[in-house]
Design goal:
The strands form three sheets. The chain has a four-stranded antiparallel beta sheet. Strands 5-6-9 form a three-stranded antiparallel beta sheet. Helices cover about 50% and strands about 15% of the residues. The chain contains 15 helices and nine strands. The chain is elongated.
Length: about 375
């Protein structure tokens, strides 16, 4: 069934094709050939989506902004798009995009960019979920969701640049991702772990993680010039990451991640002891010592600590401490959970964690806030009615 749509614009129609909705529009006369042009777009899930896209195309025709026909394929587009991102993104982000682009090219690279449909994209996602790995097993929904994010961003740029009429990925659905579950320690379990690692040369790094909720790369990137032990203030201005096996120093994850946090007296004392230990290591290393970046945490010769090694070292001591197995990043979750349970205001917790908004904090730790709210109700009632 065809439904003719004019609305004072270029002639067009919406119809069903292969179980999906499509539209065809008269794009006027081609000035090079003198022949009339017909544009066909298909793969829409609903009639409303097709009509909406048709209306936008009709308007583009009237404004003489119809996208010129091109045979460029998705593979070639990503070559140009990735080159355009160089210098705009952090090295770690660009590396992640390159890995994702390789995955997209493997499934969609042969498709003409302008012919790409939402249905093709959703089939591509389904294929990744089923057997997207090299060994034939499926990728996680989170990985496929990240693939969707990169593809949608790339096609948004293609639409902005006039390479495609619309962003096909914006109309496609990425896989649903369930909220990840994480395990946290109680304060007793945290102290049990501290007792296990107290003699470790990087004991202070573990303490700093637990008492601030900082990210791994943020802790490893702190310099002595970023911290004032007398006032108990620490500025987070850089982070250390590993990109394709190379250590990279970069700015924090987001604007909110660049922050100043205050340290408790116990953590300051631990850091003072660590500074003394580091000076002793410098004397022992002699001319082999090279801490040109002035980092708080280094190996025995002053070099930066590799993030992956730090995580493995943490896991090794967790096993020896006879506490529940958690990831290094779960120490950050432990801090947030303990802080919220101690009735620290969520905004303060959010700022210390470096979240861009308090909503992220409340959403991530929604399992904690009901208990806090219950305690708050009792506390306020006690103030009103007395003991």
């Amino acid at each position: 069934m065809h439904r003719l749509l004019l609305s004072g614009m270029a002639r067009g129609s919406v119809f069903r094709k292969n179980g999906r909705w499509a539209f065809r529009v008269d794009a006027g006369v081609n000035p090079e050939t003198g022949k009339r042009r017909q544009m066909l777009r298909q793969g829409f899930k609903t009639q409303r989506e097709a009509e909406k896209a048709l209306a936008a195309t009709q308007q583009a025709v009237e404004q003489n902004s119809v996208v010129a026909k091109s045979t460029m394929k998705v593979d070639a587009f990503f070559d140009e798009w990735l080159a355009s991102q160089n210098g705009r993104l952090k090295e770690s982000t660009l590396h992640s995009y390159e890995i994702t682009a390789k995955r997209i090219r493997g499934g969609l690279g042969h498709v003409q960019l302008q012919a790409l449909t939402p249905l093709q994209i959703e089939r591509f996602y389904a294929d990744l979920l089923e057997h997207g790995r090299a060994d034939g097993t499926g990728l996680s929904p989170k990985t496929v969701r990240n693939t969707h994010t990169v593809l949608r961003k790339a096609l948004s740029d293609a639409e902005r640049l006039g390479l495609v009429q619309r962003n096909a990925a914006a109309a496609a659905r990425g896989p649903a991702v369930e909220r990840p579950e994480f395990t946290v320690w109680s304060s007793d379990e945290l102290n049990q772990f501290f007792a296990q690692v107290e003699s470790h040369r990087l004991y202070a790094a573990f303490v700093l993680l637990a008492t601030t909720g900082m990210r791994r790369g943020e802790v490893l990137g702190v310099r002595w010039s970023d911290i004032d032990l007398d006032s108990g203030e620490l500025a987070i201005v850089q982070t250390i990451t590993s990109v394709d096996g190379r250590l990279t120093v970069t700015t924090p994850k987001t604007r909110g991640s660049r922050r100043v946090i205050y340290l408790d007296d116990t953590t300051v004392g631990v850091l003072r002891a660590h500074r003394k230990r580091q000076r002793e290591e410098q004397l022992a290393a002699g001319p082999d010592w090279d801490n040109t970046n002035g980092l708080l945490f280094t190996d025995e010769t002053g070099a930066a600590v590799r993030p992956e090694w730090f995580s493995k070292e943490f896991g090794r001591h967790v096993a020896e401490a006879d506490v529940p197995r958690i990831r290094l990043h779960d120490v950050r979750h432990t801090y947030a959970t303990l802080a919220l349970k101690a009735s620290v205001h969520p905004k303060i917790v959010s700022e210390r964690l470096g979240h861009s908004t308090i909503a992220i904090t409340l959403d991530l730790y929604s399992h904690v806030t009901p208990g806090v709210a219950r305690e708050a109700a009792q506390t306020v009632a006690a103030k009103i009615f007395g003991p």
